[in-house]
Amino acid sequence: MTVAVSDRIVLRRFDADRDAAPFHALNADPEVVRYTGDPPFADVAAARDFLLAYDHYDRHGFGRWALELREEGRMVGFCGLKRLPEGDVVDLGFRLERRLWGRGLATEAAHLALAVGFGRWGLARIIGRAMPGNTASLAVLAKLGFRFTHEVPAAPGHHGWREHELAAADYHGLPSLRPIRDDDLPVLFAHQRDPVAVRMAAFTAENPDDEAAFRKKMARILADTSSTNRAIVVGGEVVGNVMAFEMFGERNVCYWLGREHWGRGHAGAALRAFLCEHDRRPLVARVVHDNAGSLKVLARCGFVVTGEDEGFAHGRGGKVREILLRLDGPPA
Hints:
By secondary structure, the chain is of the alpha+beta class. It is 31% helix and 32% strand.
């Protein structure tokens, strides 16, 4: 099961048969496990037994995920979240084959995991632990925005750690997704009044200045159990929304992003996250013909142009030419 994707990485649930050999090899490298305190597995069978017994997904919904390099199509490490036994604490962890160090892959994967934790699972904070000598992991935590909180002294048979913390409101990396709330509506209403953004949208309000009509429409959309709706959040701020709904006998997807947030990669990251969470296929998107930005975002996520149609955009005062796109499989 795919959890999150980026341009270079796929995070997915472990598959014991598929991942046992690379998981064993990863933990057999003494440099990889040097600062972890974990012993290597005796053999591939022992690694497979560990993965078969791994129950974090069932118990908590999330866990450590296999890190797959898209250009290789196989597991090359892991990254993800772990609920620790000492209380309501969730830890970020990552591990990567040594040959891939120094390419920013750990940071890229960690951004995906944090966006899932803060967005999909609504975690208020996530911690990160690294041994004092593990300068590479400490640097990754710093890039992600974690702040040092305290030293965890070594216990008998264990190693000491430097513990860091990142709060959801302080995370300014990839966008995260969560259900839309009533207090999001004023922000979303303000975004959809932007005349430049309205011109680029295939689905717009007939009267973008009528807040009562907007709230009534949103209440109807959110009450529709056949639709899926998510707020796009960056650094604790709602910057747009993404949704999937039934129209013309097909499952449609569309998104909205406030204009001040354009050009930062937020739309593509939010759409990828939504597509990983929303696993119903196929999906259709309708884009105003000269909206080059959205056409590029959808293409990068795996949508393919299938034709054209005539639509109605209030922001353009009447009929417009729309490009139709379709996604049948997993996000690209």
